[in-house]
Amino acid sequence: MSYSVGQVSAFAGVTVRTLHHYDKAGLLSPSDRSPAGYRLYGEADLVRLQQILFYRELGFPLEEIAAIFKDPQVNPLERLQARQRQLSEEIARLQRLVEVAERAMEVQRTGVSLTPQERFEVFGEITFDLSYATEAELKWARSEGQREAMARAAAHTKEDWRRLMGEAAVWRAELLAAFDEGEPSTGERAMDLAEEHRLHISRWFTSCPPDRHRRIADDFVADPRAFALVVPPSQQRPGLAAYTRKAVHANAARHPAGPAASDSEENR
């Protein structure tokens, strides 16, 4: 028994245009034609269409589906297993994203509400890049330190933010002065500033042992958005991020490793 393109479209839930596209792509060519030249699909064609739709539902691109059909050496099971792994990873990523959204909503419900004028008054030129914050949440989602930092940040009052940003501004001015005056990044002055920054994080957000502080400083060089949270772009100098990272690493080396000083087993 044969079916017209319209009939196949109706009971397969695909458009006629899609069936034409599959034909042109060499994925599904009808096995017969009517005397008037219309496409006619047989039972074997419908089985193949079902396979195509199955692979498409799993997110396989048409090129990969075509390769599975054309190459007898291709193992469909291996392709399916690989796709299963990809889907599992994507599900886990989306679940973490859901958790980020839930946490962000919680921050909105419990966090301090600032007008644009108050926000500028408190944060000045420091801006919080939402894309960076989201990526950081996903990257360090299983970290106890990250969860604590988010919870404490959400609980800060406007006055808390004013105080901690004031401390940060004083520290930033001293860092810029040390850099501009040519102080070595591994010298006492730079290392003491690195230590102040570490204690500032511990005081306002989460415990920051030297190992964690090193990883935070690594982000200063790896991602400009991270360093912009410490020094706004208008105040940055070429090499300042690397200078700060070196000072943090040098300062961390001054501290003896120990249970309280190292969290290398933690995902930050």
Automatic annotation (TrEMBL):
Boundaries of every HTH merR-type domain copy: 1-71
Coiled coil found in the keyword field: yes
Keywords, ordered alphabetically: Activator, Coiled coil, DNA-binding, Transcription, Transcription regulation
Compositionally skewed regions (Low complexity) per UniProt: 249-261
Residue ranges that the Swiss-Prot or TrEMBL entry lists as coiled coil: 77-104
Name of the protein in its database record: MerR family transcriptional regulator
InterPro entries on file: DNA-bd_dom_put_sf, MerR-type_HTH_dom, MerR_fam, TipA-like_antibiotic-bd, TipAS_dom
PROSITE patterns from the UniProt entry: HTH_MERR_1, HTH_MERR_2
Matches recorded under PANTHER family: HTH-TYPE TRANSCRIPTIONAL ACTIVATOR MTA, REDOX-CYCLING DRUG-SENSING TRANSCRIPTIONAL ACTIVATOR SOXR
Region annotation (Disordered) ranges: 248-268
